[in-house]
Amino acid sequence: MLFTRNFVAVSLINLFVMTAYYLLFVISSPYALERFNAAPSTAGLVAGLMLIGCLGGRFLTGRIIGTMGFARVLFTGLVLYIGSMGLYLVAHNLPFLMGVRFLSGVGIGCIGTATGTLIAHIVPQHQHGAGINYFSMSTILALAFGPFFGILMMRHVSYAHIFMICIVLGIVSFLLALIVDYPALEACPESHGNCSRFNWHEYVAVEALALAMVVLLAAVGYGVAQAFLSFYAGELNLMGVASLFFLVYAATAFCLRPVAGKLFDSRGANIVIYPSLAAAACGLLLLSRVDSATGLMLSAVLLGAGMGTFQTTTQASCIKLVPRHRFAQATSTYFIFFDLGIGLGPYLMGFIVPLAGYRGLYLAATVLVVLCVPLYHWMHGRKNIGPHSP
Which pTM does this prediction carry? Predict the structure, then answer.
C-alpha cells in the first residue's frame, strides 16, 4: 500500500516547504529592489543565493543522513528553515538578507533530500516508480501554487505577511514530521562499519553520475523555459496568459506522472524517458516559434508531458542504481545536478539572447534536449533500468 500515514505526512511536508521555496524565489528579486533599492544584477544574486544554499544542503545531507539518521536531518532542516523565515522579518540591510537567503536554502536542501530519501525507504522497492511519481506530485503542485500565490500576495499583502505565512507552513511541516515513523538505516559495508572518514563516494553516488549528467543537460533546457518566459511573453504581447503557463505545465505533469510511474515499474525506464525527451524537445521547439496564446499553452502541455515525467523517472532510476543504504547519496546526486541545470542554465544560455533573441534561445534549448537522447542511450539507456534492477 502506497498511501500510508508516513507517505502522506512526508509528501505534505515536501508540498508545504517547496511551495514556500518557489513563492520566495518569485518575490525575492522584487523585494530586494523595493526594500533595499538593489541593482537588478544584485537582486538576481539575492534570488540565486537560495539555490546555492540548497545545493550545499543537498550535498552535505547525502552524507549526514547515513550518520545522523532521517529524523535529525529533517528536523535540523526544518529548524533552519523556520528560523530563517523569522530572520527575513529583521533583515534590515542587503548583506543580512543575502545571508538569510543562503541559510534558508541550506535548510530547504536538507529537507528536500531527507524527504526524497525517506520516500525511497517507505515505498516498497517494486513500487518505486509509482511511489516516487506520486510523491513528486507535491513538488509539481508547489511549482504551480508557489509562484501563483507569491505574485498574487505581492499585490494584496505586505512582504512581512508573506514571510509569516511561510513560517506557518514551516511550523505545520514540523508538526507533521513528529508523526512520521523513521526507518532505520543500514550500515555502510563498503566502509567496513566506519563511515566517518571523508571521501567523495560518501557524498555522491558515483553509480548515478552518468545519468545525472543527462539530467543536468535536460534541466538546462527547462531552466531556460522557466527563467525567460515572462520576458518572452511580454515581447509577444502574451503576458495576459503567461501566468497560466506553469499551471498548465503542472496540471499536465500531475495527470501523467502516475501513468509514467506504473510504466517504469512494469516495463523499465526507457519506455518513459525516450518519449518524454521527445515531448520536451517538441515543447521547446514550439515555444521558439509560438505567436499565439494557444501555441503557448500547447507548449506548456508538451513540456509538462516531457520534463514532468522525465524528472521523476530519472530520479527513480538513480535510486535503482544503488543499494538501499545509499539511497540518500543517489537522491542528493540527482537533485544537485538537476538544480545546477535549472540554476546555471539561464545564466549561461542567456548570452544567446543579444545574438539571436528569445526565439534563438529556445531553439538552442531544443537542441540541448535533442542531444540528451543519444547521450542517455549511450550512458544509461542500454541498461533499461526498471522492474528487475536490484
Answer: 0.76
